[in-house]
Amino acid sequence: MNDGDQRGASQPSSEDLDLKDASYLVDAVFRLEHAVTRIGNIRLAPWSLTLSSYTAMRVMYNRPHLSLAQVARRCFVRPQTINRIVSQLEARGFVARGPHEDSERAVALSLTAEGIVALKEMTAEVDKINTTLTQALGADEIGLMQEMLRSSARMVEAEAKELQKAAKRD
Asked: Which SUPFAM superfamilies does the UniProt record give (predicted)?
């Protein structure tokens, strides 16, 4: 093997570097998502609920009388997943189903008084996660980071929507 071959075999190519650099942000976001989910589930263990259940409760608190489909969209989960979550919350007495004002077929969801009390208790724990996330940032950076993450999410969601539309056409 000549010297050129050895160098080529031991050093990454420019294509490898591009792939490594391009995936770094995705890896960081993926790691953060899993870390937040893990700590959230640990903090919410006294209520035997997950961060997904907490998020669904927050959505129902902030927007009472949404349908299952509307809650699913706001929680970024499939209707089957939100149906399972809501059924568990209903069994615990945290959620009530009622008639939906806009549709005879849809069911409106709302938190019960017991659900609101539990949500407020859980929020104190979830706020601790937020505090941990923002410890390394200054006040200006927190707002900037939130906006950048939301903007990035909107862009990725739009791209995913376009890809789904293209896949349906094919």
From this structure: Winged helix' DNA-binding domain
pLDDT tens-digit readout, 120-144: 999 999 999 999 988 888 888 989 9
Give me 164's structure tokens: 């789904």
Instruction: Give CA–CA dist 125/121, Å, rounded.
Output: 7
Task: Note down the domain range covering 151.
Answer: 137-170
Q: How far apart are the first and last CA of the chain?
A: 48
Q: Are residues 128 and 161 in the same domain?
A: no
Task: Determine whether 40 is exposed, middle or buried from the number of CB atoms within 10 Å of its CB (0-12, 13-18, 19+).
Answer: buried
CA-CA distance, 143 to 50, in Å (whole number)? 26
Q: Answer yes or no: do 55 and 121 share one domain.
A: yes
CB 116 within 8 A of CB 92: no
Does pLDDT of 1 surpass 60? no
Residues 100, 146, single domain; the answer is no
Both 88 and 141 in one domain: the answer is no
How many domains are there within the chain?
2
Per-residue pLDDT tens over the stretch 38-79: 999 999 999 999 999 999 999 999 998 998 989 999 998 998
